[in-house]
Amino acid sequence: MFMAVESTLPTPVRTPASEKDAKALQFIEEMTKNVDSVQERVLREILGRNAETEYLKRFSLNGATDRETFKSRIPVVTYEDIQPEIQRIANGDKSPIFSVHPISEFLTSSGTSAGERKLMPTIHEELDRRQLLYSLLMPVMNLYVPGLDKGKGLYFLFVKAETKTPGGLLARPVLTSYYNSDHFKTRPYDPFNVYTSPNEAILCVDSFQSMYAQMLCGLIMRDEVRRVGAVFASGLLRAIHFLQNNWKQLAHDIATGTLNPKITDAPVRECMRKILKPNPELAQLVTIECYEENWECIIKRIWPRTKYLDVIVTGAMAQYIPTLEYYSGCLPMACTMYASSECYFGLNLNPMCKPSEVTYTIMPNMAYFEFLPHGSSTSCLVDLADVEVSKEYELILTTYAGLCRYRVGDILRVTGFHNAAPQFRFIRRKNVLLSIESDKTDEAELQNAIENASLLLKEFNTSVVEYTSYADTKQIPGHYVIYWELLVKDSAIAPADDVLNRCCLQMEESLNSVYRQSRVADNSIGPLEIRVVENGTFEELMDYAISRGASINQYKVPRCVSFTPIMELLNSRVVSKHFSPDLPHWTPERRR
Ligand code: AMP
């Protein structure tokens, strides 16, 4: 019999699907009821084991493990504050700087510092913590969606290129680390968690071959598919776009039982050989559905038994909700978890809710969490159990791997509680102006890119008077649009089209490595576009803002726009459009 779960979970429709699920739900209940004591224990454990680290000794913690001493002695830091120590570890210093446990690898965050991904030190046991959070997702989902053990999940999961630091440690994204771990590769069979994608396809570093094999498997197993997903909404849309571009070849492979010769990766070929059998009927079905110009509801048409989409559509991903609704015929979208390279934070206990209502419950066993009330000084941090409903906070983290009072940069709003555990709405990431997928471009980076590009205009006696930007995600892949108002001092030598095209590329060269990797390796961001607008356009923009109540004295040109009337105004003043003619430079190696 199942263990009885004295459940305060939000109106689950069913009882736990298995004894294993009941245990997981019980665990969630225990953690969320005892938030404060679990947090106290976690801090004690972290400080106790790391007492002899250089970092804690530097602040004379003297072995103390209580919150009061910790808060009074340890400063709140940003990545830049601890970068010298991180660089030492990267260069091969094996002394216990942040953690007495050896640093097993670096996780490369999509957040950047000076143009390169931030390097997050991690320790081996963190994999267990990540695995633990993953193990809680399906038990919650099974409460809301019955029968997921009767079919499979079509998940588009990818690894990215790995690199090594000068000291020899691996540096790779957290999901690349997880998919390459035994935790993932040799996971025990779980009928609720069967994927259509074979490990060989997920672990293929070539993004085209990986996507091709995963899509092919998804099509072959179409009748079994019960849920379709990717980590982020942008990834799922990329998969749909891929199908648009490749369905003919995919249908050919299915019809003939042969594999596209562009798939050269030996493990992928070998595993596809076992899966692929001639199936002209299925090939015809795929052809009929994809041949149609209208791709509305394509997900439901090709995978008719899909019950929901498993994708994150909160935060920057919310921009993709309408497009996903279009392609899926309004299937529910489940945002199941909230995580980062630094730490996996928590999960959504009501995963079938509307995207606008998603809240994440931070699990107090994952790390020690503090919260900086929005706009307050760093002396006012609040504990996880003490945050207040409807207030906004910045998340501060102390991890087992040794990050101490680290500013993640996420702004969260408390919406309520599950037992004693606060539930948070993801509001935004600090300082992010433009984002298409995992790229995060801030105002300073955009400014720097504009300055570099405008150097090309100098010889034409032309300068950029004003600019703003827009993340255009109407088409897949999305791309950055930069609006420029130019001052052409001598129209006889005004910059020609090819100069402005090169300005686009120059801007791309100046953007951070996550952006350039998405452009080059993943093809998940399209060429950057510059739209030159008529002289006086930005003054009109100001007039418009003032007519809506902005103060003339305090008016600043918005460096990113999305409000429809402003977009309409800008677009109606466009005199020419220019696109990056080439790919920017990118290799897995870091520039610094
Ligand atoms: P990374 O360090 O590259 O893994 O990126 C982690 C960041 O992605 C987080 O700090 C958030 O800003 C964002 N993120 C992760 N999960 C979610 C989510 N469920 N909703 C919104 N943003 C998220």
TrEMBL record:
Family: Belongs to the IAA-amido conjugating enzyme family.
Boundaries of every GH3 C-terminal domain copy: 445-563
InterPro entries (UniProt xref): GH3, GH3_C, GH3_M
Keywords from the named record: Ligase
Protein's UniProt keywords contain Ligase: yes
Signal peptide region: none
An annotated GO cellular component: cytoplasm
Gene Ontology MF annotations: acid-amino acid ligase activity
Protein's name in the database: Indole-3-acetic acid-amido synthetase GH3.1
Domain GH3 middle: 360-429
The keyword Ligase is annotated on this UniProt entry: yes
